[in-house]
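Suppose a colleague, Dr. K., hands you the sequence of a protein chain of 159 amino acids and asks what its three-dimensional shape might be. Before reaching for any lab equipment, you can write down a predicted structure in token form. Begin with the sequence itself:
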Amino acid sequence: MSSEPLAADYQTLIDNSQSLIIASCAENGAALASYAPFLAFENAFYVYLSQLAQHTANMLRHRQASIMFIEPEADAHNAFARRRLVLDCTVDEIARQHSAYEQLLDQMQNRLGDTLGVLRSLPDFHLLALTPSSGQYVAGFGKAFILKLDNGVLLPLTP
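The predicted structure, expressed as tokens, is then:
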């Protein structure tokens, strides 16, 4: 699989998703799996999370997370070979006073609906940018690719 069809293939996973799966690490080292709706914008994935959620504290403490996009089971030909994209990310908080804060939330609300309008009024929510640094894409049996980040675009490593 050449890099262009490969990139289009994993971009389809992202484009067809409204939420992403998050893996974070608790203070005691325990792993936590969770999910959040997201906005993909300028080479980052933005999530708006309550500080009451354990994954928020984990990501703010460690400033890293792993995220996954995965083919729906109903669309997969084989449960063992679902297409999936896993990205290692750095985590940065976007402060409420940051110039892009309101614009990013407006875009999220346009994409995800009016529930975000309600959440915006709550003081315990944090806007986090998850910026990929590397990852892996599995397109099926024997079709695993290590991805590197080059100028904001994930590219497969060539042999």
